[in-house]
Every structure is written in C-alpha cells, then in structure tokens.
Amino acid sequence: MTVEVKPLVEINQQALRLLYRELGVVNAVRFLKQFTAGFGDYTKERDALFGKKTLEEIIDEMGRQRESS
User: Fold this and answer.
1) Whole-angstrom Cα distance, residue 9 to residue 46?
2) Could you write out the DSSP letters of every residue in the chain?
C-alpha cells in the first residue's frame, strides 16, 4: 500500500479550507487560536493580580465590584 505524501503547505491549505467550510471562519479562527503559544508570563501576572489571596477572597472582591457598578 502506498500513500501519497503531499507537501505540508498543501496539507495546511486543505485543512484550513475544511475548517472554514465546516466551522465558519470565526469558529475556525477560534479553534486555531487555542494552539498558539501566547505571550507574557502568566505566573508573574497572576501573582501581581492576586498575590496570596484565596479563591474566596477573589470571589468576594468580584461580588463587591459587581454591586458597586
């Protein structure tokens, strides 16, 4: 059994066409975005935002902010 090995560029183009057709452009882009590395340092950002707060403290703070707006 032989398998046709297509160039990677052609495979990517075919895959994008399939995703766009089956999911629509917006949902295809959303799907693809989950595989990007992103940027920044989440650990440092999380520590700067939440410090040593417990989950309960964070939820309480969210509730107070919601009530004041």
Assistant:
1) 38
2) -------HHHHHHHHHHHHHHHH-HHHHHHHHHTTS---S-HHHHHHHHHTT--HHHHHHHHHHHHHH-
Per-residue pLDDT of the chain (69 residues), as tens digits, is 898 999 999 999 999 999 999 999 999 999 999 988 878 888 999 999 999 999 999 999 999 998 987
The torsion region of residue 50 among left (phi > 0), alpha (psi -120 to 50) and beta comes to alpha
How many degrees, rounded to 5, is the angle at CA 65 between CA 62 and CA 69? 140
Question: Which residue is it, tokens 């452009």?
Answer: 25
